[in-house]
């Protein structure tokens, strides 16, 4: 069913259109020339020989050398997959989708036929699919059902240098599966692919397997550093863009590295505004971030009219996962949004932090793909040198509850599971305690799934949120809980263009609940579902139609899982206390309290770890007098200050009611 949706969407967007077969053929001539010019193509026979001979291989090559798009095709052309399929994992959903679309075009086939993709809430594969691009998270979910991953005869773990938790865990799962399957004569071939990385670590881990290096094909990039420290990088970015815009030829396209959707939207609005009065060629601005709908992502690859400058505003997704052609100039803020968590409370936080030196080089390298280029770093040389050389593997600094639950569900023993870099025992222990408090496992010392825990793994979402859904019948609010979790799993639903900020804020008023942002979101979602002309309605109300439609899809799928589990769909009507308690039963680690004696209403709170944080100005609780004594927040964002995002007011004693074990531990720590 969801596959059908995907197909329809693609046709509507014209990205994979049956009506343009002739145009497609024309394109494919070109495409074949591009393929043959890629570094991978030159060494394809060597790669084929290696992979025929060995079960495991590491392939290293610069971004853009054709690893991700070509290797699966080269293997498939020789039918090396036999009766199985080829899986290619990607850390990001956007990358999985765009790459699959690209390869489908190159193979002159439609998506979901021989080439497909599988990402959370969207499956564009069919029984005949031979090459499947999927997120590392999706392959992990498949491992719960079949730890030997028998559907695949070749598994390609791509972007290994990123060291996401999911990829790191997959290294172990695939290694174990390979060992067992090879004994039974049902061989599994594994290819690890990456941009430059620390090869020895991987080689040791995979028993000294063979390594193939691709010849680099990059041009020199001149690096410029900022002379002084920049206080406001968003402002610096816009200044840099327009300084370069009036001095460089229009066919020199720009790639700008920023940290997230909101920031990209703000900078985009600023550029559009200033461009109206700026000298220089016309500008086309293209955003690129993980939550961007696929059709919009493809605009990045669309050519612009001669004499127009393309400016791509991207997150670190453009660092290595996707290749954007004709970039001659990179503008790098040197920053990345990083997820980490507090070991004591289990609460997650998002922080904007300097990226590693390796990442800075990757970013600069994007300017030298087709000709010599330049990279403008908005940080000083001293700042650059002070950075760590490589990214810390995510598994060292990230929440592990979801990953551990997955491992336990596949029947693996967390303590003996083969990992390249093991997280600290403290952090494993903290995650096990959280799983215990969520009711997913018997105890932290006996990590066996409970009945509830088993049900939790049926949902493709974080265990905190599956707990919310599973406790909803108890609170009589499954209908609302499903809607809320669905909206929260989609991307930002509010659309606030910079030049129409006032109108957007005014439009939001009709949804706002004084109980907080969660009920506000629920109001938006409910009214969206009822609106007859949804696109028009969203436009009038400054809402993001794509993200709300996506939330509807998600809700559909979550509901289907609930029905399979025989859950009764109850509604709490306007008794929102019940819904907020239900939400708290999963997100109990995300409470904050007004600080002792603080009645000035400055909106200052302390989280469970004692950190100070303020209500985000966009919160519907912002400015409320007196401020609610206790709140539940969805995310903690550290920019120059710490902000609580998506917040609701709760009664302090609810915590004891819905999460007594945690409440006790939390009190002991505070
Ligand atoms: P790697 O995995 O080695 O970084 P890819 O296989 O992703 O390289 O990309 C190889 C080449 O294919 C790129 O240099 C680019 O020319 C082309 N390419 C990749 N994706 C797209 C796309 N979506 N649209 C147009 N060209 C693309
Ligand atoms: Mg790649």
Task: Tell me what you see in this structure.
One of its GO terms (biological process) is positive regulation of transcription by RNA polymerase I. It holds the Pfam family OB_NTP_bind. This is RNA helicase. The longest helix is centred in the last third of the chain and has 20 residues, at 545-564. The radius of gyration is 25 Å and the shape is globular. Helix 10 (233-245) crosses helix 11 (261-275). The chain has 28 helices and 23 strands. Strands 4-3-5-2-6-7-1-8 form an 8-stranded mixed sheet, with helices on both faces. Strands 9-16-13-10-12-11 form a 6-stranded parallel sheet, sandwiched between helices. By secondary structure, it is of the alpha/beta class. Adenosine-5'-diphosphate binds next to helix 5 and helix 6.
Mean pLDDT: 88
What would you call the structural class?
Answer: alpha/beta
Largest β-sheet summary? 8 strands, mixed
Q: What form results from the Cα inertia axes?
A: globular
- Tally of helical runs: 28
List ligands, each type once: adenosine-5'-diphosphate, magnesium ion
Radius of gyration: 25 Å
Give the spatial strand order of the biggest sheet: 4-3-5-2-6-7-1-8
Fraction of residues in β-strands? 15-25%
Q: pLDDT under 50 segments (min length 5)?
A: 1-27
- What's the β-strand tally? 23
Termini separation comes to: 49 Å
Determine the fraction of residues in helical runs and give it as a percent range: 40-55%
Organism: Pieris macdunnoughi
Catalytic activity: ATP + H2O = ADP + phosphate + H(+)
GO molecular function: ATP binding; double-stranded RNA binding; hydrolase activity; RNA helicase activity
Domain Helicase ATP-binding: 48-215
